[in-house]
Amino acid sequence: MNAFASGQLDLAPRRRGRRSSIGTWRWSDRIVLLGAWAAGLTLCAIAGAIVLYMGVRGIQYLHPSLLVSSPEAALDQSHSGGILDPILGTALLSLIGILIATPLAVCSAVWIAEYGRPRWLGRIMESSIEVIAGTPDIVIAIFGLALFQTQLLAGFSFVSTVGGAGASGGGVFGRSFLAAGSMMSLIAIPPIFAATREGLQALPTHMREAAYALGKTRIATIRRVLLPGVRSNIATGATLGISRIIGDTAIVVLLLGASLRIEPAGSTPGLDVLRGTGSTLTSFVYDNSPAGEGNAPQKAYAAAFLLMLLVLALNATVNLIARAHERRTGQS
Amino acid sequence: MRAGPITHEPPHLAALADPAPSTDPHVPPVRRIVVDREPTPVRPPEDRQTIREARTAGPERLRVESLTVTFPTRTAVKSVSLSIHQGEVLALIGPSGCGKTSLLRTLNRLTELTPGARRGGRVLLDGEDTDEMQDTDLRARVAMVFQQPNPFPMSIFDNVAFALREQSRKRPRKSELEPLVTDALRRAGLYEEVREELDRPALRLSGGQQQRLCIARAIAPRPEVLLMDEPCSALDPISTGVVEELIHELRRDLAIVIVTHNLAQARRVADKVAFMYLGDLVEHGTTEQIFEDPRATRTRDYVRGAFG
Fold first, then answer.
1. What is the DSSP letter of B111?
2. d(CA A126, CA B262)
3. What are phi and psi of B307, to 5 degrees?
4. Looking at the predicted complex, does its ipTM rise above 0.95?
5. Cβ contact (<8 Å) for B146 and A114?
6. Does A139 score more than 90 pLDDT?
7. Staple A141 to which of A104, A131, A251, B145, CB 3.0 to 4.6 Å?
8. What is the dihedral of CA A322, A323, A325, A326, to 10 degrees?
9. Contact B15 A115 (CB under 8 A)
């Protein structure tokens, strides 16, 4: 286009690469290019430094025995136990969060992509999810605390007896795996929603038409054709959601409590754990760092290294899902 | 004649498109698919021929009465009347953009899914006005095969079974579906090639096999009419030959309407041919008559390759 416009087409053929030579650039352009290179390389260096440092520290302190023993409250680091409970806590919170978030996010994505009428309601719904996505997790946490401290939801959380012996009316409640998990679902909804909606919008129209032409209703088309078609998108979104949940600290600290071990509340098996308190890898790192109470930085490094490995593994999973999906649809 | 009710809720595409500002205060912007039964003024083109009632092979299945289809920017089909009989293949021919596909898609009310599409005239299936029917029932009786093979991303078996499931409240078992699925695959001439691998993903099949799978899927619920929108244009000559033979076989039980750009194909597969030009049905008659002895000059020019 440019060649046509400037009439350069009828000049003799030039050496290849001449146009991209920096020598012909203006100084301001050269500086910006240099800045772009520098910024990119710096970020790579920072990422590499984090992984390297955590790797060295982690390999130094992360003994396999830590993974299978519970933490102990001890000042001596050699007696302060392992990180089994935080690992289980992270897994349980992710499970609760993702079980609540996935159906909600997928349903709203289907509604937006396949119905979306009236339009103003669709816009409100999309903005609401954007608001949730943009809300700092500490705000979600304090909101959850307010929510679960109402008498109506008291059954979902344990009653802390700190400060008032027994259930004498002075107990504090509002914190439990259920409370933290349901608020965690909020931070997992946006990625699942976005991935599902994008997947639905990318499905070709002829797929829907094929189903309608077979006399299928809209809902049968969604259930049997469209949702199976976006299965990998949902999986990608859910994996991203999990990695956000396991990386979150604020909600854990405010809504799960700060005990090191998983402490069930009540006597119903299963429900007692959900109503109880515990810790996750993130809250364990916080508590054991010099900023927290435990001051066991070695354990904190071990847990942080494990946390980083988990998140890296989840990101790799996302890439694998996307690549498998590309391979499958590329064949069609 | 009356202005008809809304017969279908806004479809997926309409849901995403910006609502066009409605000039009619009685029509809210979301209700845009309106069945307009007001008689459309018939434009008398000088070379319009009286539609010849040819010898018919079976009972009349579909009857199209002064059908008009308009889109916001153009009129695709202008007051076309046709009748389609069981046991015969009707080919719609004509240059691109002449309303062949729009006409075809109106026969199973698929045009309703296009935002802004309006329709005038009537389509009768076995004497019953298709507007009075549930769209899902209509489409189960008037099946369609598309230009691009479009199997669903599931197994071969599930593709065919999908058409059969959900017809009833109760979900049929796989063992109940198996004979129906194999029968449909057999009638589509695909069974011998895929009998060992019914659980393979349908998208692994070749293009011609995919199209025959789509035909099997379409005929599995035993429809009365089969609409085919250029079913061979994405296929190689050998697959095209297979599909054309299939059309010969299938017409015993079905009325078939096929849109094609390929005049030789129309000649090979069709019993009757309708020539459309710029939305008008210019001429309609037996294949022999249209190709050997066309009455309108435009038909003659087109079948002799003077334009198109």
1. G
2. 47
3. -150, 175
4. no
5. no
6. yes
7. A251
8. 120
9. yes
